[in-house]
Design goal:
The chain is mostly helical. The chain has one domain. Helices cover 55% and strands 0% of the residues. Helix 1 (9-28) packs antiparallel against helix 2. It is globular and about 35 Å long.
Length: 143
């Protein structure tokens, strides 16, 4: 159950958009749209990853923590530097800019807050009232 949020279709779509945007679209069409698209996709993907830091299911806490840290990183030089150092440790050389216009992406957290961790990682288990069989699971057993 704890890892089910990671294979939710919205999270998976966020990862795909983030990878395509950061590794292809930003180089092809740099600018405002691709910059904000990264922020939106990152805000969709970050809460499920942040939730893994908690011992219990903490969807709301992870979402609020993501929003608070994103706001700090985008509105202060110190926050941007701290985020740069963290991302460099995790993913290699990184530079985060303090850009308050990136706060336009914060409503993307509503996508995170509105979805719920699925009971299973089956293609149908995430939709309310849909048939969830014991057939093929996308992410393995989660309960």
């Amino acid at each position: 159950m704890r890892y089910a949020w990671l294979c939710h279709p919205v999270t998976v779509a966020g990862v795909v958009v983030l990878l395509l945007n950061d590794h292809l679209l930003k180089q092809t069409w740099p600018g405002f749209v691709t910059g904000k698209l990264s922020d939106v996709a990152g805000l969709v993907v970050a809460p499920p990853l942040a939730a893994l830091l908690f011992r219990r299911r903490a969807d709301l806490a992870a979402t609020l923590l993501t929003g608070a840290l994103f706001t700090l990183a985008k509105t202060t030089q110190t926050g941007a530097e701290a985020a740069s150092h963290l991302f460099t440790l995790v993913a290699g050389p990184s530079h985060v800019l303090d850009d308050p216009t990136d706060l336009l992406a914060l409503p993307a957290l509503a996508l995170t807050a509105r979805r719920w961790p699925p009971r299973s990682c089956s293609p149908w288990g995430w939709w309310p009232g849909s048939p969830s069989s014991s057939g093929v699971r996308l992410c393995g057993r989660t309960s």
